[in-house]
Fold:
Amino acid sequence: MLRVLVFTSQLEMFPTLLVLLSVATLGCALHLPIGPEFLLKKGPINNRIVGGEDTPIETIPWQVSLQKLGRHDCGGVIYSKNIIITAAHCVYKINPRIFDVRVGSSTSKNGGSVIKVAKITVHDRYVNINNKKAEYDIALLLLSSPLEMGITIMAIPLAESVPHDGATVLVSGWGRTETGKAPLHLKSVHLNIVNREECARANDDEQVPRATICAAAPGKDSCGGDSGGPLVYEGELVGIVSYGIGCALPGYPGVYANVVELRKWIEEEATKVSST
Ligand code: ARG
Structure:
């Protein structure tokens, strides 16, 4: 959509700039949809941690921002001083060298500390289908240097049993909000666990996927950029943000990798990778 204007001389550029400037000013004054905002907006309600609140990192000290080439790309969760859990689709087939994690900060752009990723381990049963629906959407990141734990940097224990349908859970991240934009400040939102059969029906799944768990609440959801982040029940990790159809759309619960089902894999691989 964006055109590059090529000018042969400074003189030619001036009148064109003037016209562009006045059109833009007029557009703002009359609220005409001609600003860059309008050009960038995509679908209607599709792009919308929706319905959440700003939350300090001290409240969710296991939350990290996974940065790809220096920019926030996905969420992640502190498992131990040298291992981060994230979604497989965030890191699948990508060179670990382009990833860092920012820990101990409420903003994804600055603060806390930034540590390089040394190695990525993706679940061997993960299948990437167009970056969409995925079972076993989980990966471990080995950090190049150990974390210094504190009140803003802490590991979270893995849950041992799946929360009951309707249980209240908390999801967090720097993913898109109801405005369609990614926020600077960490957000979180309470959701309820959705029955697995119901969730599979909503997603048109032929079978109920074993390694997933779903959560939803009216007008609330995780969204693009939250992937890899934590879904927490009573202080324990129960899910990792994986996928969804749109965000906060009625009838379409968000889908999470089921940490209880994947617990053995996480523990075994973490032991293997930490000892190499
Ligand atoms: N796949 C998204 C990401 O890469 C996460 C989407 C979660 N969607 C949802 N509706 N809960 O960040």
Remarks:
- Residues 10-57+156-260 form a domain with the Thrombin, subunit H fold (CATH 2.40.10.10).
- Residues 175, 221-227, 241, 243-244, 247, 254 surround arginine (CB under 6 Å).
- The chain has a mean pLDDT of 85.
- Helices lie at 10-30, 36-40, 88-91, 196-202, 259-274.
